[in-house]
Amino acid sequence: MGIGKSQTxxxxxxxxxxxxxxxKLEVIAxxxxxxxxxxxxxxxxxxxxxPLAYLEDLRLKHAIHLMKIYPNMxxxxxxxxxxxxxxxxxxxxxxxxxAIAPSEYRKKHSFSRISRxxxxxxxxxxxxxxxxKIAVQKVGLTMPELNHSYQTLxxxxxDGVITTxxxxxxxxxxxxxxxxxxxxxxEEKTSASTNQFLTIPAGYYxxxxxxxxxxLLKERLTQHKNEIESCGxxxxxxxxYEKIKLDVQLTNFDFLTVTREILIKVxxx
Length: 269
Description:
Blueprint: H1 5-18, H2 25-32, H3 36-47, H4 51-69, H5 75-81, H6 87-98, H7 102-109, E1 127-129, E2 132-135, E3 137-138, H8 143-155, E4 161-168, E5 182-186, E6 197-200, E7 203-210, H9 214-230, E8 233-235, E9 240-247, E10 260-268
Antiparallel strand pairs: 1-7, 2-6, 3-5, 4-5, 4-9, 7-10, 8-10, 9-10
């Protein structure tokens, strides 16, 4: 394979799911199959920033998500949960890019809660899922592109039922749709023709059924977050997994009308 954008894309996918860890440039370059020098030069050319600057941006975005959905989480915990080596490093980075301290940002942008129903706490179903590696492709969150890409996956299988998996690497309720990174693949299929893979990590998950646009998705996930917390759990990952089961005879896929199952990784408080 020649040097191309697909190689930096594989490194970006790796960063998107490992940014909490301590990562060196050599490790990132290895994901692209390049030397540290050549990878750094290619990454800057295509992404207009260094790999480590991109990594810092991912960590900041994750920290902002945490502050919005967990307004009571200590900033020290936000820092470590986002991959920063210390609260001081997090504070300096945040001020540099946001021109405001994390504590002040939180006061202005805390995530609003939906009031709970009078019926009291709602039980949620928790299931354990084994780790699963999926070959993926990047898709924009526009209806024409979503419908076309999913229909292409459906057409790739001759008969039976196909189970697709969508990966939300960004939270649509916090990031503009045109900036959200979304990848799709087929659960039962791996492909040697791509070097782009994402993994559903092993762990405990809860699921919520969705049908409709992203405004409805935001409303339902906000409600489900409160249900999760009322049952003694918290969200353990801000990456969302979207499972759709489809009959391969379907010829006119419509993202807005199919039932999608959003899987959310959780842990005990």
